[in-house]
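Researcher: Re-running this chain for the archive, since the previous output was lost when a drive failed. Same request as before.
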Amino acid sequence: MMMVESEEPDTMTDTASETGLPELAISPENVCFIAIKAREYDAKDEPSETDPASNPADDRMYSVLEDHPDDPVRQEIAAAIAGLSEDEQIDLVALAWLGRGDGDITDWEDLRKAAAEARTGRTWRYLLGLPLLSDYLEEGLTAFGLSCSDMERRHL
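Model: Regenerated structure tokens:
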């Protein structure tokens, strides 16, 4: 589906009413930001260095490709998700489930309801545990006729 760009900022309410699709509580930009950061995070590998006190220049900076508990990408994703409202977090989980194939766009309200019922307050931890989170979020947006590449083009 090709999106028409306009000079006026588009809102999910306008898009939802024009297409007949359900409304999203979370902005596509927020979803895309989290998806892009999740892709960075997924590229990380288990730490292989037993002595992290070595000089990063000596180990060719490989440590930036390793997953550490204090990883700044992980912290950035956690902060971004924790900063969302409850409804936005519910939509984010429902989008991940939609993208994972747990239902289709006609099941959106059921997915949202299940996400709300499963909510524990650690949404970021749950989502970071999904190995294909970025793919799931992007697939979920696709069901709404949106894509992160469209968002990137508008902001670049």
